[in-house]
Amino acid sequence: MRNHLAAVLAITALAGPAIAAPAHIAGAWKLVETRQQMTDGSIRPDPDLGAHPSGYMIYDPAGRMCTVFSDSDRPRWAGASPTDAEVRAAYDHMVGYCARYEVDDARGVIVFHIDIAQSANGVGINRERRFELEGDSLTLYPTPLPAGVAEWSIRLRRVRP
After folding, report:
1. Which among 41, 88, 96, 159 would be 20 to 30 A from 23, CA to CA?
2. Calpha distance 90→88 (Å, rounded)
């Protein structure tokens, strides 16, 4: 996984000119929790990442970023090579993309211009996420919302050396 993330970061660095980005977002952010408030008022974690999600969002000061999230409870493969079902489960319970990003503090949004994505359908799209930054805590609010979800949040904590 570390080699895969290093390769993704290296490819992203070569992907073209970057957009200037504010220093207050730059750095590594560790995933703390995902939370979906349902339209019936109940609360659940993101079902793809489970109750114990793990991962990082890394923003460089030149306006590039990468995200790798996964369900830390996903089972290990039974054999040396995964079965088709194990490959599908790994894909379904992981999120990965790299992008150019811009922060619009006035509107409270980060705009991601997706360069590389887990799904080919994600490449070339823009994602806009409302955000809140309080000290070393960054919360993102993804849209569009899945059916039955009233609000979705992703909470991250800044990684300090």
Report:
1. 96
2. 5
